[in-house]
């Protein structure tokens, strides 16, 4: 089974460009997880025969949002996270609003695993959303996937808005302490690893040069001056079933590229 994740930075834009259709024709993912759809389902015409579509859009029009497209019909689909998680981590919002109304988390249960996709809030240039990230969001998300893991293994993916290590961005030194590469955000990611989740790309590839997002400035993508902020992580029990993990940097249409993981499951 091949699962893909892609922050499309606006599903309507990649459809208009034709890049989404080209991608689907070429790759034909078994499960596709999208972030930053920036649309409600009724605003988009996507002709995908053979796929079940599940959308979790933001209340605010043209903002955020996630979706899962799957060839196999899931046993259930869960939008957002349970109220007990929201209450425990006091995820009621900050000066930017309520992240629970931004369509940032969607999960699909299949026979042998949960697939969860997440669009993690950006820390902002002035780091004003670091408290939300560090004290609430990252901890809540970890608690959520660990709770799902009590039932069956978890595959989670998406735009986590953090470069985990210095190998995950082209210019670590000047970016240390800036959004996406703060101690707090990196700690949040490390907590996933410490809890037993496996960063699938690092099973197969080490070192730098593997990026999933590039700035629009200074021809950064062509020069591969980027960041790896999109990930697939799996429960430790699935590690031996991961047969490939790839970055598809040739797929255009967004400032992010798709990533994938193949499971022998």
What's the end-to-end separation, in Å? 7 Å
Could you give the order of the helices and strands? EHHEEEEHEEHEHHEHEEEEE
CATH architecture label name: 4-Layer Sandwich
Helix content: 10-25%
CATH fold label: Deoxyribonuclease I, Chain A
Low-confidence spans: none
Approximate shape = globular
As a whole number of angstroms, the C-alpha radius of gyration is 17 Å
**Superfamily (CATH H level) name:** Endonuclease/exonuclease/phosphatase
* Approximate strand percentage: 15-25%
The SS-based structural class is alpha+beta
The average pLDDT is 97
Q: What is the makeup of the main sheet?
A: 6 strands, mixed
Main sheet strand line-up:
3-4-2-1-14-13
Summarize the structure.
With 265 residues, this protein is α+β, with helices and mostly antiparallel strands. The protein has seven helices and 14 strands.
Structure explained in plain terms:
By secondary structure, the chain is of the alpha+beta class. It has one domain: Deoxyribonuclease I, Chain A (4-Layer Sandwich). 23% of the residues lie in helices and 24% in strands. It has a six-stranded mixed β-sheet. A six-stranded mixed β-sheet has the order 5-6-7-8-12-9. Helix 4 runs parallel beside helix 6. The longest helix has 20 residues. The radius of gyration is 17 Å and the shape is globular.
Question: Main attributes?
Answer:
265 residues; alpha+beta; Deoxyribonuclease I, Chain A; 6-stranded mixed beta sheet; 14 strands; 24% strand; globular
